[in-house]
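USER:
Make up one protein:

ASSISTANT:
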Amino acid sequence: MCKKFELGGIKVHYVHMIRGIKMAGVKIVLLAVIATVLAMNNPLNAANSQVVAGVDTSKWRGFNLLEKFTLGRNSPFREDDFKWISELGFNFVRLPMDYRCYTEKDDWSKFRESALKEIDEAIEFGKRYHIHVCINLHRAPGYCINPPEEPTNLWTDEKTQETFAAHWAMFARRYKGIPSEQLSFNLLNEPARSSKEQYLRVFRRAISAIHEIDPNRLVMVDGMNVGKDPVPEFVPLPNVMQACRGYAPGRISHYKASWVKGSDQWPEPTWPLVNVNGMLFGTSKPEFKSPLVIEGDLKAGTSIAIKIHSLSVKAVLEAKADGKALAVKVCDPKADPASWKVIPTEQRYTFHEPAKPTEFKVTLPENARTFSLENTNGDWLKFSAIVIQQPGGKTLTFAADPSWGKKQETWKLTNEGLLLPTKGNPEAVLDDYLKPWLDISRQGETVFVGEWGSFSKTPHPVVLAWMRAWLERWKQAGFGWALWNFRGSFGILDSGRADVEYEDWRGHKLDRKMLNLLQEYAK
């Protein structure tokens, strides 16, 4: 069994079993030496696993710069960005690029020297200001996570795969001799829509093309399924690392993002993100029958409503406050067919949805400590959201989780308007995403967060609380990170947030609170 580890800053391999040494004394000495080295370089130690090609990636902290992100934007990188990033205490930039920015129109095998010189210049800026530069193909021949779709398919077309490897071979030749402390290659942004076999074939070919020219070049590969899933097959490869993302959950990072269909209809997010169980089971499902309970300082005049999504045959909803009945709503398509319509389905069961938007809303007549809502008779009812209106306060809308087969829960409504579970981990969505990356890090893989951040429409206090939760986890894991972006709707400059008091800073609008948070974790 072979495994890579760091020895004096160089990635090497050890062999579990030593054969062919006849002198027992020599074998014992060698085993002792290897055991000592392995103890010093235990891959279970996250700090050790974050050193690759002589580079301690756990110290990388920085931003994505978008000058060549799309063909329409194609412009030189700005020296001021590098200068300011360095002055502010950061040391890393990722350059997500569109291959069309540096190739001739209609001929992706011909490279435009003028555009390549602008990339050269960015690398020189990095050297000048002590910033590591990572070149990334955000749009590569045959693939991009964003529209428009490429004319060929990187995963299935042999000629496109050859071209992809040739682009990276070109960069390897051009930048051979620049140490990996200064420059790395991130092969492809957020690969998706491929089988594992296709994924491995494409990236192994590109890695080989690079390392045949420059064996010491540090190469970064995004995990499968949009950077979500690490790939064990890369762990043994020298001078290769993997990258994940920090966008989970999308309901926070991409709230009202124009390019995410339906995100303008999402409830305004909170952190921790609330996933209220959206199923109320009745007497026909006794194993799941249970009330939704909300505890807290519930003032008289507080209204609580659920937006009804669908049901099977019948449900009787009963609301209580401190155990006292407040209201009952009977949902019965058979008795009231005009209010319901059948949902088209191939299943043998008949399901119904409201003929028009319908909610069950209750207003508390007096102060209470506990509110409960239960389906007291019938089968199941699904609701899409719960809406709480506090007297004199804003309306709080929490999306509901339609997952089947779970009992209801008890939630605590805080004075700040947060709905928190009384049991379990409210930040489990982050831990669930991170777990496979922690696991592969313990196997000795180097892991980096190539992109993360939140779009400008998410409430700023929510963004900062969520960012801190991620940053704390990456600090514990020893993972470096690069925010998307530096200037723009995810960044610290000119983000266009409506709820931020910006500071005028060198001709830009600076989000000082976000900067302070990032600097806290950049030390």
